[in-house]
Design a protein that fits this description.
The complex is a heterodimer. Chain A is an all-beta fold. Helices cover about 0% and strands about 55% of the residues of chain A. Chain A is built from no helices and twelve strands. In chain A, the strands form three sheets. In chain A, strands 2, 5, 6, 10, 11 and 12 form a six-stranded mixed sheet that branches. In chain A, strands 3-9-8-7 form a four-stranded antiparallel sheet, with no helix packed on it. Chain A has a two-stranded antiparallel sheet with strand order 1-4. By secondary structure, chain B is mostly beta strands. Chain B is built from no helices and eleven strands. In chain B, the strands form two sheets. In chain B, strands 2, 4, 5, 6, 9, 10 and 11 form a seven-stranded mixed sheet that branches. In chain B, strand 7 and strand 8 form a beta hairpin. Classes of the chains: A mainly beta, B mainly beta. Chains A and B meet through strand 5, strand 6 and strand 10 of A and strand 5, strand 9 and strand 10 of B.
């Protein structure tokens, strides 16, 4: 069975602080994909990253970075020097290769205080 | 460029009334289409997906139904709404299997059943 756990329901940080959003997943599949989406107050989900289970290299994109560790089944997301515009709900998701469903976590609401 | 729109953005319906949410995609052909529901604190749940006209797969048994009358049109319906149908409904599309590529989401429709 597929499962994604985002234990942090809400996080508040002061602007310019770094923040890490945790994501732990469960799957019996050997190949799978992991995703992060951002949901700003407008409601629309915005794709941030997709990671193949074969690729454990960490990735950095501007102030965003992702740490994928198969040994701990985690795919954590770090925002460096947070900004008010980063305030949103962030979802981690998992899918089987070739499947038509993404299993989403319950999301982490990030509030960046100016 | 591809765009996805869904409407209405907000609606309030009494229990037992019918429902129709519509979603259209532009700028692409043969997209895979999805309806997700986001309940408070429960992440996103896949309701239906479609890989072609008239082809609908249901992931969760409920009193909702979906139809795809045209290649880029996806409709979510109900004959009689229940209180438990309240939530935020998101339409999404992908160029291929969701497990391989990213999903592109619409703006969402917030349904309140009273």
């Amino acid at each position: 069975a597929q499962k994604v756990t985002q234990a942090q329901t809400e996080i508040s940080v002061v602007e310019k602080e770094d923040v890490t959003l945790d994501c732990v997943y469960e799957t019996r599949d050997t190949t799978y994909y992991l995703f992060w989406y951002k949901q700003p107050p407008s409601g629309e989900l915005v794709f941030l990253i997709r990671r193949n289970s074969f690729d454990e290299q960490n990735e950095i994109s501007g102030r965003y970075s992702w740490n994928f560790q198969k040994s701990t089944s985690s795919f954590n997301f770090t925002i460096t020097a947070s900004q008010v515009v980063d305030s949103a709900v962030y979802f981690c998701a998992l899918s089987q290769t070739g499947a038509n469903n993404l299993f989403f976590g319950t999301g982490t609401r990030l509030t960046v205080i100016p | 460029s591809q765009t996805i729109h869904q409407w209405p953005a907000t609606l309030v319906q009494p229990v037992g009334s019918p429902l129709s949410l519509e979603c259209t995609v532009e700028g692409t052909s043969n997209p895979n289409l999805y309806w997700y529901r986001q309940a408070a604190g429960r992440g996103l749940q896949l309701l239906f997906y479609s890989v072609g006209i008239g082809q609908i797969s249901s992931e969760v048994p409920q009193n909702l139904s979906a139809s795809r009358p045209q290649d880029r049109q996806f409709i979510l319906s109900s004959k009689k709404l229940l209180l438990s149908d309240s939530g935020f409904y998101l339409c999404a599309w992908s160029p291929g299997l969701a497990g391989v590529g990213e999903l592109f989401f619409g703006e969402g429709s917030r349904l309140t059943v009273l």
